[in-house]
Each structure stands twice: as C-alpha cells, then as structure tokens.
Write a structure and sequence with these properties.
single chain; alpha+beta; two-stranded parallel ribbon; about 45% helix; 3 helices
C-alpha cells in the first residue's frame, strides 16, 4: 500500500474540478479533507505502508482549503 500514490491519483481526478469543488465548499459551508484510514497488522512479518504526500497533492489540498486526517488502527 502506498499512500503517496493513492493520494496523487485522487488529486489528479479532482484537479480539473477544482473550481466546482471550491464553489461547493462555499455553498454548503463544508470543510474538505483527505481522509486516510490504515489498519496495521500486529504481525511483524507484514510490512507497513508508506505514508506521505507529494508536493502537488499538498498544494492542491491547500488551494481548496482541505486538511489531511490520518487514522491508524491495529488488528
């Protein structure tokens, strides 16, 4: 699992709709966010995911006033 890659893919889909997203944020008075939910195995043989965001992703989220929320759980 690569959070870098997944976030970049999502932002690439949303970028062409940036103005519509900003209009919706203003109209509906919502707070946009990128939510990342990760479940970590307690089995030490399993690798952990790469967690991070490309500059382009962070810039886009800033432009629309979004924040990033990362939740982690063990199973």
């Amino acid at each position: 699992m690569d959070v870098f890659e997944m976030a970049t893919e999502i932002v690439n889909i949303l970028k062409p709709r940036k103005e519509l997203i900003i209009q919706a944020i203003e109209k509906f008075k919502v707070k946009p966010r990128l939510e990342v939910v990760l479940w970590f195995s307690i089995n030490e043989e399993h690798s952990t995911p790469a967690i991070g965001f490309e500059t382009e992703t962070v810039s886009f989220l800033g432009e629309i006033g979004a924040f990033i929320d990362i939740d982690t759980y063990k199973h």
